[in-house]
Amino acid sequence: MRRGAAAVVALVGPLALVALAGWIGAGLSPSRQLEFGNALVNTAIVVALYVFIGNSGVISFGHISFVAVGAYLSGILTLGATEKNFVLPALYPWLRHTHVATVTSLALAAAIGGVYALVVGLPLMRLSGLPAGIATFAVLGITYNVLRNWEKIGPAAQALTSVPEVGVWTLTVGALVAIAVAFVYQRSRGGRMLRATREDPGAAQAAGINVYRQRLVAFTISGALAGFAGGLLMHELGTITTDQVYLELTFLTLAMLVVGGVNSLLGAVVGALSISALDSFLGDAENGIHLGIRINLPDGTRLVVLGALMALVLLLRPGGITAGRELGFPRRARI
Amino acid sequence: MTTVQYLIDGVSLGTIYGLVAIGIGLVFGVMRLVNFAYGELITAGGYTLAYLNGQPPFLAILACFGVVIALALLQERVAFRPLRGASPATMLVTTFAISFLLQSVYLLAFRGAEGQQGKVVSTLGGLNTAVTIGSLHVRWILIVSVIAGVVLLVSISLVLGRTSIGLHMRAAAADFRTARILGVRADRVIVFAFFIAGVLAATVSVLLTVQFPLVDPQYGVNVTILALVGVVVGGLDRLWTGTLGGFTIGFAYALFGDVLSSTHRVYLQSVVFGLVILVLLVRPRGLFAPWRRATVERM
């Protein structure tokens, strides 16, 4: 009984945080809604990263590739026919003639993210440690390079624009779905096996766990979530360029995950929300805000303060804000 | 003759990536830390040179070395010393954060009046002129790069092989805990590694700004990332394999850039990264690592 209740509490924590963010955001002005939407999409991306990196302990720099393909596919498929002919004249005919609703496009984004991750993961999941990090980074480099130059599958170096946008509520539901999927996976048999390999690969193998297979499963699920989050990103912004889904997003989302605490779902959510909030706050402070006293930072300090605070959190609390713990009842010492 | 010209271009870029690779590899060896903020050292050197444009080259280069080495030691003291023993993911992301922080500081401090054009370095621009040998065009900078590379490589291997601090560094790289138990001073070894890394970064700033004179806040990022990829491809466990890996990736980049037709050249990055993945799959311990069966997985 108690374990079941603990599970509910652990799930309710992240869900409640995101729902709260969505609820607050929905009641605010359009420019504020944009900031909240951004935070929610970041949460979905970081949760996707967490499913693989957090559970397996293997670092991946390649997940933004899945975000990118998800974003571009869902954007291209929901673009109106006239805009499509205008923005993307060189597109493959089957891509040009297909048009789907926004929700369907999100499902397809998840599908392409998952398939891409599976194809990439089949060879790459044999690696671990830094070679795995570098190989996934190479995947990111290739994805960016191809998306930026191949005009038959997208707008190449141009921006993809006039994609239908969705409101804060849809983004909230999207982030909640990502969290629920991550939670169910983490408590599944496969998820527990993978966490065992993270703690001690040798012992896990000796206990009969197929490390390669469990990593591949997690990589695929996390790729699907990343593709889905990419779809959300596309429909949040309405316009996107390849540079928005490359190095900066990779580093920022990884930093969110580690600052929050890489070993727990709560950490992923807390990291994403707190850094997004800090970023928005500093952005406002550059324009001048009143908080009892008037705060007005010089232009450009936002990034400096953000970088310094992230470094500071990691120096003072190397396990991240949550130190890898989920929300739970206070523990009583057992003797 | 064009083949030789391609090879010359390859060696020129390869030397620079090789130097960056040594800097990254040395620090990794003693600290197991991949320093993404290494590129910002190179950028700092570039800015120093740009601000001393009219000054005598000797002074400008001296200042460049001073600034870069100071920044390298500062990074070690402020950011990486408190992190010793933290998990690899935390260390890695902290170096991102430092890199990001320094880039933002550069952006703020060296902002141009209009539209972020960056600063142009002209200190050693004369080295871009070419000597013609037969039908070959060899720019002076290439000769200087290769000489600087060889001199640094030889002196570093002498320091590592013939001095007691070098012996300590090799011991620390092999097994940090045992080395400490045997009386190797951790702080001294690590500070020394960062010092050499600073010297290398300053050298790279000087050489790189001759070929690519426009310095912006992200100046060192691409070189660092590619050299890092090279280090892992070559093999992280030893210094020389990583260095050779860095050289190889620079060489491959220049070579494929020359060989690919102009329509395919936009896919240069994909070609090189595709090869990187292939090498990692076939030889995860590194292209130049000795043939030996891996018993346990690394890291």
Verbal overview:
Chain A is mostly helical. Chain A is 72% helix and 2% strand. Chain A contains 14 helices and two strands; from the N terminus they run αααααααααααααββα. Chain A has a two-stranded antiparallel sheet with strand order 1-2. In chain A, β1 and β2 form a beta hairpin. Chain A is globular and about 60 Å long. The mean pLDDT of chain A is 87. The longest helix of chain B has 30 residues. In chain B, strands 1-4 form a two-stranded antiparallel ribbon. Chain B has a two-stranded antiparallel sheet with strand order 2-3. In chain B, a hairpin with a 2-residue loop joins β2 and β3. In chain B, α1 crosses α6, α6 packs across α8 and α9 crosses α10. Chain B has a single domain, classed as ABC transporter involved in vitamin B12 uptake, BtuC (Orthogonal Bundle). The interface between A and B is large, with 48 and 46 residues.
Features:
heterodimer, A: 335 residues, mainly alpha, globular, B: 299 residues, two-stranded antiparallel ribbon, 11 helices, 69% helix
Q: What is the distance, rounded to the nearest whole angstrom, between the alpha carbons of the first and last residues of chain A?
A: 21 Å
Domain count of chain B: the total is 1
Residue-averaged pLDDT of chain A:
87
Number of helices of chain A: 14
Total number of beta strands of chain B? 4
Distance between the termini of chain B: 46 Å
Largest interface: A-B, 48 and 46 residues
Task: Write the H/E string of chain A, N to C.
Answer: HHHHHHHHHHHHHEEH
Instruction: Give the count of helical stretches of chain B.
Output: 11
Instruction: Going across the biggest sheet of chain A, name each strand in turn.
Output: 1-2
